Amino acid sequence: MELAYDYPLYRPPSEANSLIFQVTLGCSFNKCSFCNMYRTKEYAERPWEEIRAEIDMMARFYPDTRRIFLADGDALNMSKDRLVQILEYLYQKFPGIERISCYAMPKNLLQKTDEELQALYAAGLHMFYVGIESGNDVVLKKVTKGATGRSIVQACSKARKHGYVLSCMVILGLGGRKYTKEHIADTAKVLSEIAPDYVGALTLYLEEGVHDEFMSKYGEPFEFIDDVEVLDELERLVRDFDPKMPVVFRANHASNVYSIGGTMPDDRGKILSLIEGLKSHPEMLKPKFLRRF
Ligand code: SF4
Questions:
Q1: What keywords does the record list, in alphabetical order (predicted)?
Q2: Which residues does a 6 A CB cutoff place in the pocket of ligand 1?
Q3: To pair with 143 at 20 to 30 A between CA atoms, which of 91, 94, 175, 228?
Q4: How many angstroms separate the CA atoms of 263 and 268, rounded?
């Protein structure tokens, strides 16, 4: 049994077994030049009656649901009151819920007051997936992310302060060949400062629909880095990422050249030796046609 979703529908890989409710459609920002996810949709918040009817229906089919993901791109953009209403109803209808999560932009987190974030946590929203992409301000501006390294740290620290579990995504190759050093050095700094529970490193892959826009918004010629340079970025990121508490680090997304993962900082040595091995055996990397964003 599946809901009549408004496609395309996205969710993080770790929410593969979660029940998904589309409480919003699209992304309220929709301007990141590398992102093709919601270009065909206009941001909208679905009416409470529709959401409630879907929750009622799915509660009849899957009463033992443990995990729920609220889609689309930034459900956190909804008002605190509407979200609390949805969360309370979900807990009422699915008594065994262990986790409710959604995507969140730094802007969403900064726009919510401390009291609002506290109220949402108390109502049972416990995890955010945040696309950080880069910690470098030049790169963030060139890809029109609508955030700076500082605002990302502020937003994520605010969520951490209220107890939220954070999973942050960064994109290898986003600075191209020219900004590769700054991109990785500042991304490692920002991630170290936030120390999220999870970090996912993806690799830049531009869908056809955004390729030209990405290039023109970049403001100067953009040169993709090659696979060995991607490994080199990963190596520098792992070497410089120094969280004060354990962080699950993964570079196992479909877009990556190889699946790598471990817990930082303890597994740093193991991950670095794997990368070292791969750099001298590039034939072991995933073929390009198997990689997607
Ligand atoms: S990356 Fe996230 S914030 Fe940016 S346009 Fe895509 S969904 Fe929206």
A1: Iron, Iron-sulfur, Metal-binding, S-adenosyl-L-methionine
A2: 27, 29-32, 35, 37-38, 73, 105, 131
A3: 228
A4: 8
CA separation for the pair 254, 78 (Å, rounded): 30
What's the rounded Cα separation, in Å, for the pair 27 and 30?
5
Residue with tokens 């794997």: 274
CA–centroid distance, 93 to ligand 1, in Å, is 31
Ligand 1: atom nearest CA of 10 is 7
Ligand 1 mean position, distance from CA 30 (Å): 5
Residue type (1 letter), 59:
A
Q: Which amino acid is at 253?
A: H
Calculate the average pLDDT of the chain: 95
pLDDT of residue 91: 98
Dist. CA 143 → ligand 1 center (Å): 11
Set out the domains of the chain in order of their start, with CATH numbers.
13-286 (3.20.20.70)
**Which residue minimizes the CA distance to atom 8 of ligand 1?**
30
